[in-house]
């Protein structure tokens, strides 16, 4: 059996074909396709069987039939690498989805690690979203304040018409309400962040180096 290292080297030469838009695969590419390597790449990246179906459809236009035995052999080898617990944690922690591709004897450890990583990703995302949410709301307040100043000049301007003043007053009212809502939301997020940080820190400590 060829080693995983050998397949990784081979993958570099076919990855663009194997993972690019399958509908664009030409006849020569289909004829030259190393189906075992393609299967390995699909397995090692956690691709579902739909990827083979897409290639089969594209190559069928050229009268080329995939070598299913070679593909399955390569895919099984790739899945053994993908379905490791440490990789499951990495996949979950990156926020990527899992398509249930791992065979039964590998699925339990993989999914447990995946869920652990997924939980970490959710806690990190919640904290990041809160921090970014505060920044976005503060930036919006700055923009609102600039508009309010402009509206004030219109309202107080001697050359402004009654209609312009009325529109400026309505705009100022709506913007002032929006500004007040943003201030409340910022306050809520700022009060929530310490709890988010504590929960994330506790979870990281709980994980330790188990999946690292």
Molecular structure report:
There is one protein chain. With 212 residues, this protein is mostly helical. The protein has eight helices and no strands. Helix 1 packs across helix 3, helix 3 packs parallel to helix 5 and helix 6 packs parallel to helix 7. The longest helix has 53 residues. The protein is elongated, with a radius of gyration of 28 Å.
Task: Summarize the amount of helix as a percent range.
Answer: over 70%
Kindly report the oligomeric state of this protein. Answer: single chain
Order of helices and strands: HHHHHHHH
User: How many β-strand stretches?
Assistant: 0
The low-confidence runs, each spanning 5 or more residues with pLDDT under 50, are 1-21
Figure out the total of helices: 8
Task: Outline the secondary-structure elements.
Elements: H1 4-19, H2 27-32, H3 35-44, H4 50-60, H5 68-82, H6 85-93, H7 104-156, H8 162-207
Helix pairs in contact: 1-3, 3-5, 6-7, 7-8
